[in-house]
Amino acid sequence: MSDAGRFDQVLESLADPYRRQLLLALIEHNPQDDDDPDPLNIHPEGDDALSKLNIYMGHLPKLDKMGIIEWDEDEDEIIKGPDWEEFEPLLRLIAEHKDELPKEWFEETDTD
Description:
The protein is 48% helix and 9% strand. It has helices at residues 3-13, 17-28, 49-66, 84-96, and strands at 32-33, 69-72, 77-80.
């Protein structure tokens, strides 16, 4: 994949608040696992089934396909993927300056 295409993937991986929070959490806690459909407990309590479906059918497979994470569906485990190192510098930069960025960037609004 070209460098421009890969950069597009980096931006796409960060385009959703859930994915941003998941990737930022992986900086400090690798692996992430839980029996809950929301492995990081990012969603507020009582979130609907559609949001959980979007995590399992959308966000996690997308990040796995990009190589940023490896997701073991059977074990509900998420670990850093083979291409994590390409994404990590930008993720660390975001994490280090999170307080300076708009808080809305990290709030869950929709998990399309």
